Automatic annotation (TrEMBL):
Pfam families for this protein: Ldl_recept_b (PF00058)
PROSITE patterns in UniProt: LDLRB (PS51120)
Protein name as it appears in the record: Uncharacterized protein
Recorded coiled-coil stretches: none
SUPFAM superfamilies: YWTD domain
């Protein structure tokens, strides 16, 4: 993996793309766009672009995906939020802090194989 076979996946429907997440199960990529105030997604080949516009999202910065949920940081509202990754429904503020949250990652705890 030396970058010699790189290619552009998405080149339109973008203004200020920031955070990037890959949903391997759903076979989509997700990105934040602070200028458009949305979270975008596309198939892994760049097709089927969708923009998820949420009224309460002002400056999405970082994004991650876990199961059916998107999690993102909003630097203007200083929050970590989540919503359904396809519909944007059931949005919930998980954390609000006086300092700006920036980077965000989701991880799962692997089972301890020594217990089996």
């Amino acid at each position: 993996m030396d970058g010699s076979e790189r290619r552009v996946v998405v080149s339109h429907s973008l203004s200020w793309p920031g955070g990037l997440a890959v949903d391997t199960l759903g076979e989509r990529i997700y990105w934040t766009d602070e200028k458009l105030r949305c979270i975008g997604s596309a198939n892994l080949d760049g097709g089927d672009i969708e923009l998820l516009q949420m009224m309460e999202t002002t400056n999405p910065f970082s994004v991650t995906v876990y199961n059916d949920l998107l999690y993102w940081s909003d630097t203007r509202r200083r929050t970590i939020q989540r919503a359904h990754k396809i519909t944007g429904k059931n949005r919930k503020v998980l954390l609000k802090r006086p300092g700006q949250p920036f980077g965000l990652k989701a991880s799962i705890r692997a089972p301890n194989l020594n217990e089996y």
